[in-house]
Amino acid sequence: MAYPPVLALRGICKRFGGVQALLDVDLQVRAGEVVALAGDNGAGKSTLVKVISGVSPADRGVIEWQGRRVQIRRPHDAHALGIATVYQDLAMCDNLDVVGNLFLGREIARVGVLDEVEMERRARDLMRTLSIRIPDVRMPVSALSAGQRQAVAISRSLMGSPKALLLDEPTAALGIEQTSHLLDLIEEVRDRGMAILLISHNMGDIKAVADRVAVLRLGRNNGLFDVSTVSQEQIISSITGAADNAVAHRATGDGEGWP
């Protein structure tokens, strides 16, 4: 049984000067599902993430959160609703250890003194719960592999118990084994009831963990597919516009021999 949408966008538009980055974009993400957002460079994927996260508010359109209309004008608004975002650069502090990064800005203190023991305990519990393999939560993040850093960034985003998670190309800099571990983590988070929007160019990643894939092309919706039934070729055709060209070719009568 499908859950109602946690996040729903209707008619989202965003312009930067003379560039129409998004035009009438619709999107829904439900609890307990991964929706992949695919598209070529310049398709509007990152802009849409910035709209949802409050970094770059929409010029026009409707955003609904758990069935009610909301305004997301700044990152604080998104955080307050329960939307967490992990960007490609991860925004980690290399000079801090894993505990320091997890609790940065939300440190636990007792009588005005940081409670390092409690923060370390919670960090270990979180790593264990999510099956994240980190040798020592007191290691500086600069000593971690790219996959471990990505896992820590995702873990940090979950500290406030959000209901929706936006992941911007999380496997872009990872090797095969690290990617496999991260996809397992995404599935683990999804199975806990999280609504996940996964921005990715990687068809393998999309087929591995996504339930649906929404395609943007030139700032517009250009297809919504059930991953269990769609072929990789269909997704790529929607991304490149090949399917649109074929339809236009038939419509103009130039496609002699088409059914």
TrEMBL record:
The record's listing under Gene3D superfamilies reads: P-loop containing nucleotide triphosphate hydrolases
Superkingdom of the source species: Bacteria
Q: Output the Gene Ontology terms for molecular function.
A: ATP binding
Domain ABC transporter: start-end pairs: 7-243
- SUPFAM superfamilies in the cross-refs: P-loop containing nucleoside triphosphate hydrolases
Give the keywords, sorted: ATP-binding, Nucleotide-binding
Read off the InterPro entries from this record: AAA+_ATPase, ABC_carbohydrate_import_ATPase, ABC_transporter-like_ATP-bd, ABC_transporter-like_CS, P-loop_NTPase
Which protein is depicted? ATP-binding cassette domain-containing protein
